[in-house]
Structure formats: C-alpha cells, structure tokens
C-alpha cells in the first residue's frame, strides 16, 4: 500500500513527448510525497532523461499536467522551474569550473535573494548583509554534504565524487521542494557510492524530497521508497522496490527479449 499520509510534492499526469517519429514518453504520470526518495529506472533509451527534461523545463511536452506542492506549474523554462521549487543536478556535471566551491553554492542561493542588480552595483548595506548571509549558508551546505574544507578550492580541482556533492549542495541552496538527481552515481567507485547513499539518506531524513534517475539498479532498490519503471517511453510498473522487482514486465524489460 502506498503511504498516502504525507503531503504531495510533485504530481504529474499524462506526460507525452514525441521527437519526430519517436514517441519518447507516452502518458507518464507520478505522485511523489514529501520525504520520499522516488526512483526512475528503465533500460537505455527508455525515456528517463526526457522525463527529467520535461519536468525541469528543458523540453516542452506535447501533453501533461504539472503540480508542485499543490500549485500548478508550467515547466516552460529552467529558471522558472527552479523558482517554482525544483532543483536538479546533471548527468554531465555542470559546475562553474573556475569558481570556488563556495561561490558555486552561492550562485544557487541567489535565486532566493532580494537586493537585486542596483543593490549589487551600489553595494548597499542591505546587499552586503545579504551576501554575508548567503556565504554563511553556502558554507553550512558544503559542511552538510561533507566538503566544507574545500570551500576555497576551484570546482575543477575537486575529485569527481566531490564535484557531484558540490552539485547537490548547490541544488539544496535553492531551498527546493524537490531535488532531481540525474545519475548521481555515474562514474563513482564503490566507496563513493556508499557515501552518496549516506548523503541521500541524510537529505531524506531532513524531510526533503528526491527524484532520482540511476542506472545502478541495486543502489536504487536499496535507496528508493518508490520506483517507476519506464520502457520505450511507457510506464510499465510503479511501486515499492520489492513490488517492482517481482513484476514480470520489468524482468522482461531488463532481461528478456525487451532488453535493449
Ligand atoms: N532531443 C532529442 N531529439 C530526438 N530524439 C531524442 C532526443 N532526446 C531523446 N531522444 C530519444 O528519445 C528516447 C528516450 O531517450 P532518453 O535519453 O530519455 O532515455 P533514457 O532512458 O534517459 O536513456 P539512457 O539510460 O541511455 O540515458 C531515445 O530513443 C532517444 O534517442
């Protein structure tokens, strides 16, 4: 049984997206509740990234309805989606390579600040106070994800695993309703994966809500509260990891003739 006691954070329904002759998503929907880690899995080309791109405003869907924390939202542009409350990380890390770790997180925080351009130009008192508060919060977030000691290091000098943590800190800095992680374990070794898992557990325990795409099915089964499985753009299963693992269609998509 789904735990229906918790507030719905993201509710999307009827999402379809076609690229020329290819139906990349057909009538996909899901309901994600506060404090859940919700997984999206499926074989290569199943439509996972397309789904992420649609809900975060990178692709315009052909059909679909979208609600975030009870409010309808139109995912027309990435910055509007971030403001509405969805923060994401990318499969190919997108940091400001020559800025410090601290500055990268401060950038994330700026979408929630008030002083604006004039304040920045004239360096008003309000602006300076706000900058100090942003820097303090950014440092707290770096500590939270476990890379506080690298605050003054340029992003490009951090290890791969630490860059992924930095992306998560930057996402958290926007105070999101939902954090969308696109293959956060890609390229990580076993130790880094264990640490990533601990970090995601920690974020969930702080009552944050996470949507995650990940190829490492074993990691997902141990981590997620609920999972949706896509295959050729269709939702073939939804449920707890235990339910999904037993589903015939899922077994066939991964192992049978449907494996691709
Ligand atoms: N911009 C695009 N233009 C045309 N086709 C696209 C575009 N983006 C994705 N597709 C196609 O849509 C289908 C779904 O791709 P998508 O990247 O969403 O799958 P995925 O499940 O994320 O795959 P992977 O696990 O390999 O990352 C694929 O057949 C892909 O080639």
TrEMBL record:
Biological-process GO terms, alphabetical: D-alanine transmembrane transport; L-alanine transport; L-isoleucine import across plasma membrane; L-valine import across plasma membrane
Cited SUPFAM superfamilies: P-loop containing nucleoside triphosphate hydrolases
Keywords, ordered alphabetically: ATP-binding, Cell membrane, Membrane, Nucleotide-binding, Transport
Extent of the signal sequence: none
GO MF: ATP binding; ATP hydrolysis activity; L-isoleucine transmembrane transporter activity; L-phenylalanine transmembrane transporter activity; L-valine transmembrane transporter activity
GO CC, one annotated term: plasma membrane
Ranges for domain ABC transporter: 10-257
InterPro entries for this protein: AAA+_ATPase, ABC_AA/LPS_Transport, ABC_transporter-like_ATP-bd, ABC_transporter-like_CS, BCA_ABC_TP_C, P-loop_NTPase
Keyword Transmembrane: no
Record's protein name: Amino acid/amide ABC transporter ATP-binding protein 1, HAAT family
Organism name: Paenacidovorax caeni
């Amino acid at each position: 049984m789904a735990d229906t006691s918790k507030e719905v954070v993201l509710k999307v329904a009827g999402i379809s997206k076609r690229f020329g002759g290819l139906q990349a998503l057909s009538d996909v929907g899901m309901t994600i509740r506060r404090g859940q880690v919700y997984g999206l899995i499926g074989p290569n080309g199943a439509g996972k990234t397309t789904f992420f791109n649609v809900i975060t405003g990178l692709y315009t869907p052909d059909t679909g309805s979208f609600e975030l924390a009870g409010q309808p939202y139109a995912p027309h542009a990435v910055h509007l989606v971030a403001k509405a409350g969805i923060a994401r990380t990318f499969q190919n890390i997108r940091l400001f390579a020559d800025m410090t770790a601290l500055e990268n997180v401060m950038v994330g925080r700026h979408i929630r600040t008030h002083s604006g351009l004039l304040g920045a130009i004239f360096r008003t008192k309000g602006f300076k106070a706000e900058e100090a508060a942003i820097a303090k919060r950014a440092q707290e977030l770096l500590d939270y994800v476990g890379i506080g000691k690298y605050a003054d290091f340029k992003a490009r000098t951090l290890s791969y695993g630490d860059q992924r943590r930095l992306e998560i800190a930057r996402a958290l800095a926007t105070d999101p309703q939902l954090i969308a992680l696109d293959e956060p374990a890609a390229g990580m070794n076993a130790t880094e994966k264990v640490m990533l898992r601990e970090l995601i557990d920690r974020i969930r325990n702080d009552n944050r809500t996470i949507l995650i795409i990940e190829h490492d099915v074993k990691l997902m089964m141990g981590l997620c509260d609920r999972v949706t499985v896509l295959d050729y753009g269709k939702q073939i299963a939804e449920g707890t990891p235990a339910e999904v693992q037993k589903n015939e269609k899922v077994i066939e998509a991964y192992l049978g003739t449907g494996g691709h």
